[in-house]
Amino acid sequence: MQLEYADPSRSPNFGSIEIGVGYVFDSRRKTIWQLGGRNFGSTPLDAKAGGTSYAEDPNGPGLREDMALAFDEDRRRLLMFSGMKFLRAQVTISNEISEPADLWEWNADNSAWTTCWSGSPGPIPRTNANLAYDPTRHALILFGGEGYDGKGSFTGSLAAPWEWAIP
Fold first, then answer.
1. CB-based contacts of 161: which residues, under 8 Å, 6+ apart?
2. What is the pTM for the complete model shown?
3. Domains in the chain: ranges and CATH
4. Looking at CB atoms within 10 Å, which of 9, 108, 124, 130 has the fewest?
5. What is the C-alpha separation between 112 and 134, in angstroms, rounded?
6. Alpha-carbon distances of 47 from 27, 59, 105, 138, rounded to whole Å
């Protein structure tokens, strides 16, 4: 099956082969956000929307791949949980990444990241998880993924859901 976009200018393909990239649809702005990942040269990528690149915020979560993403339509925020965090700009070996257990939100109106939650108790660090925003209950639901101990060691596939109430 091939995915085609009705409007090529809104396509999340920005001209390079990338892995670990997250995509989320912003229903308010009618655009697709591309966040994180890296190209095959192992260079981490920052956030993009509609072809515009947003510089990494030094107070933000850092460059990541395989994170879970959702969009909060009520508050117009992109939400991100965990993933693999790059410890430097050119990643060549596995000890140059970490897997934090944290939840961040991106406010595109003022181009700022804010940490929503970090630490314990809560879900363990993970990659390739699913994240969804439930606008009826104003809740964020996290499910599945691959668990890590925060130091690069795989702990197994995860199935237990987690839920955060969004004020």
1. 141, 142, 143
2. 0.78
3. 17-165 (2.120.10.80)
4. 9
5. 23
6. 17, 14, 13, 25
Query: Shortest CA distance to 80 belongs to which of 53, 108, 106, 112?
Result: 106
Q: Which two tokens stand for residue 121?
A: 């108790």
Spatial CB neighbours of 136, under 8 Å, sequence gap ≥ 6 = none
Give the number of other Cβ atoms within 10 Å of residue 42's Cβ. 14
Pairing of strands 126-127, 112-118: unpaired
**Cβ-based neighbour number of residue 32 at 10 Å:** 16
* Count of all residues that appear for the chain in the document: 167
Q: How many CA atoms lie within 13 A of 22 on its CB side?
A: 27
- Give the strands of the sheet with 47-49, arranged side by side: 22-26, 31-35, 47-49, 52-54
Q: 117: which 2 tokens? A: 């939650």
Q: Which residue type is seen at 91?
A: V
**Structure confidence by residue, pLDDT tens digits, 32-73:** 888 877 765 555 565 555 555 555 667 788 778 889 999 998
d(CA 164, CA 102) in angstroms, rounded, equals 12
129 touches 69 (CB < 8 A): no
Chain position carrying tokens 């990444």: 97
Residue given tokens 């990942």 in the structure block: 37
